[in-house]
Amino acid sequence: MMRSLYSGVSGLRTHQLRMDVIGDNIANVNTVGFKRSAVTFKDVFYQTLRGGSANTMNLGGTNLQQVGLGVTLDGISVIHTQGAAALTSNGTDLMIQGDGFFRVSPDGGTTKYYTRAGAFHFDNAGYLVNADGLKVLDTSGAPVQISAMADPATMPRSFSIDKLGYVHYVDNTGTAQTLTNPISVAKFSNPGGLEKVGQNLYAETASSGAPGNDLAPGQGSLANTTIIPSALEMSNVDLAQEFTDMIITERGFQANARTITTSDQMLQELVNLKR
């Protein structure tokens, strides 16, 4: 069979994968904290028809003769650029300005996930949680909690969160209080290596490495990182870029389909030689 048939099939498969990624990016254009992904291709192995040779006294050198056998996926990279800010006027909505991720946990701190989506709220026990009930962790690894909110008799009069992640509130006696530890932010040396697990969450992997020891916004390696209250970070998907990539991918898919069609026509001519 013709090599071009297999090359064309590999082109169809890889362009379909790229279209799948583009479709996911566009679907999440309004997902809070979403980071777009980008696909790259690479060529696969080659069949050598003739090896190269060095020059001799009488003849010059010759180059290799090789035929490529198609294309395959090189990688799917998550692009962790900052998304636009959307003001919400909700005091528990938080946005990270700079590097890092909020730490959240489904079991009080033993299991940790990471997210850029800061759509939080205080539950009936005074814990700061996301929409799925995962608790936000402070720099000590404990859940952020205003314990006074657990009892209606001691409900605080008001609360606020500052740019360094400290939670302030006025208790029922009118006394200003501040939680000891601020909301934590974890920074990875290779955020592109984090695993997307759904629900706007990332999980640590061997590729991402462990987060740094600095967890307090505005300090150490997080000196340029702050928390913006009453705002959310929107998706970093650029529709103009995605639609452009979609057109390029569609044309690449069509061209590879045409390669298969043309190869089939050539094979048909061979079959018809006997007539």
Automatic annotation (TrEMBL):
Keywords: Bacterial flagellum, Cell projection, Cilium, Flagellum. SUPFAM superfamilies: Flagellar hook protein flgE. This is Flagellar hook protein FlgE. The keyword tRNA processing does not apply. NCBIfam families: FlgEFG_subfam. Residues 230-273 form the Flagellar basal-body/hook protein C-terminal domain. Residues 5-35 form the Flagellar basal body rod protein N-terminal domain. Pfam families: Flg_bb_rod, Flg_bbr_C, LlgE_F_G_D1. It comes from the Bacteria. GO terms for cellular component: bacterial-type flagellum basal body; bacterial-type flagellum hook; cytosol. It is found in: Bacterial flagellum basal body. PANTHER family: FLAGELLAR HOOK PROTEIN FLGE, FLAGELLAR PROTEIN. GO terms for biological process: bacterial-type flagellum-dependent swarming motility. Residues 95-168 form the Flagellar hook protein FlgE/F/G-like D1 domain. Belongs to the flagella basal body rod proteins family. It comes from Neomoorella glycerini. A flexible structure which links the flagellar filament to the drive apparatus in the basal body. InterPro entries: Flag_bb_rod_N, Flagellar_FlgE/F/G, Flg_bb/hook_C_dom, FlgE/F/G-like, LlgE_F_G-like_D1. The keyword Hydrolase does not apply. The gene is flgG_1.
